[in-house]
Design brief:
single chain, alpha/beta, two-stranded antiparallel sheet, about 45% helix
Length: about 300
């Protein structure tokens, strides 16, 4: 795989990487390397560490720094490494961003601080104070399910005026909202708008989006990369075939009963595939045997196991 020119705006599939664990504060280093090499071999265009799928809010600051260091060492510049710095503390977010820059990451991502629900004026004030202190370009992350606030299009319009902002990732699942983001982003040709829910990848690309931050790319990276490529070149037959496979892959995320089932499903699948540990960061715990059997059946149906 060739190294992507970091001076060019990022497009494509950027998987939000899990954080494989061997204990409460211990990284599964070998497993982390295997999962990173798995997505790189599948042709992804970047990797995003310490996001929601990476369980970042549940990890110690020490472990977050280790994840950054290991990821940059393993990837070795083959694709951009993007680091999540979301935190309730602006000071900690800035310090993590500085560590990411020193380690060799290309950009950072932050959702809104997730304890106190900010109003839109407070949110823009937070952004205006944060961005100048970041050593790397930043993508904002719209995740209202977790943060209790939304980056409204009017606020995003103000963000386009900040030189240090590279774009936005949207995990709201709202296509009307996403279309408004794309319209706002037209003011900045270098801006990028990514989608989180992978089943919306094709629709958002057709609306003018630039790629997906899709967890399923760790389980079947060639599927998501192939779907992105086929959509971009207008190969409708291939898109239809791969979208049907993506729907089957998505059944893995519905094995559990709670919202955590997505992270549990991805980690369980990778564990069953022999890639890495399936342990979750506390307070969550991995699937039990009945759920593991269901995930194994779905991987088998996909021809992955």
């Amino acid at each position: 795989m060739t190294t992507q020119n970091s001076s060019q705006p990022l497009c494509g599939i950027v998987p939000p990487m899990i954080t494989p664990l061997l204990g409460r504060d211990q990284l599964d280093i070998a497993g982390f390397e295997r999962v990173l090499e798995r997505v790189l071999a599948g042709g992804v265009h970047g990797v995003f560490i310490l996001g929601t799928t990476g369980e970042a809010p549940s990890l110690s600051y020490r472990l977050r720094r280790e994840v950054i260091d290991r990821a940059c060492q393993i990837v070795r510049g083959r694709v951009p490494v993007i680091v999540g710095i979301t935190d309730t503390s602006v000071v900690e977010a800035i310090q993590l961003a500085r560590h990411a820059a020193e380690a060799g990451a290309q950009s950072v991502v932050t959702a809104a601080p997730y304890y106190f629900p900010e109003g839109q004026p407070e949110l823009i004030e937070w952004a205006l104070r944060l961005v100048p202190d970041l050593p790397l370009p930043v993508y904002f992350y719209n995740m209202p399910q977790m943060t209790k606030v939304t980056f409204e299009p009017a606020m995003v319009q103000q963000l386009t005026q900040l030189a240090g902002v590279a774009g936005l990732k949207d995990s709201s699942g709202d296509l009307n909202y996403f279309q408004k983001l794309v319209a706002v982003a037209q003011a900045r040709p270098d801006w990028r708008v990514f989608v989180g829910p992978e089943l919306l990848l094709v629709e958002t690309l057709r609306l003018g989006g630039h790629g997906g931050v899709n967890g399923g790319a760790q389980i079947d990276p060639a599927l998501l990369v192939g779907l992105y490529d086929a959509t971009r070149r207008g190969d409708h037959a291939t898109v239809e075939r791969l979208q049907a496979r993506l729907v089957k892959l998505g059944e893995i995320y519905r094995v559990g009963r709670h919202a955590s089932t997505v992270i549990k499903g991805v980690k369980c699948a990778l564990n069953l595939l022999g890639v890495c540990s399936g342990e979750l960061a506390e307070p969550l715990h991995a699937f039990n045997e009945p759920e593991r059997r269901i995930v194994a059946e779905r991987l088998t149906d996909l021809g992955l196991l």
